[in-house]
Predict the 3D structure of the following.
Amino acid sequence: MNIYPYAYVLNHYNFVSLRQQPYVKIQFTKKTYRLVKLLYSIGAIQNYLIFEKKNTFKKYILFNATHYKNMPFFKSAQIISRPSKNYTVSYKTLKIINKSLRQSVVILSTAKGLMTHKKALRHRFGGIIIAVLL
């Protein structure tokens, strides 16, 4: 398992969205599950399945990306914050960023958990930018 679980999930999402693999299996942790649920809620992931191997009792998440006419719904996920550098944005900055985003979605880590930039604007939160879905 990668030290930074968000990068782990987003890299595997990029594999699936580029159709290098029809689906991806990742290890289940609370953080990976929260991010997969968020990607599912915004439509980046078509479906996901949580299963457990009987002989090892390890949980895994299996998911595939949403495609429309053989093109991925989002082209790629760019990881912005890393363990060594976190990019934080305030509510005011997020309002300015929102005007230039168009179809893209920013995933933020806030005090209330992971959320998209639109939800953060509704709740008037700032936070750490995790990734941008282009």
The domain at 5-133 is CATH 3.30.1490.10 (Dna Ligase; domain 1). The mean pLDDT is 93. Residues 4 and 83 are 7 Å apart (CA to CA). The first strand starts at residue 24 and ends at 27.
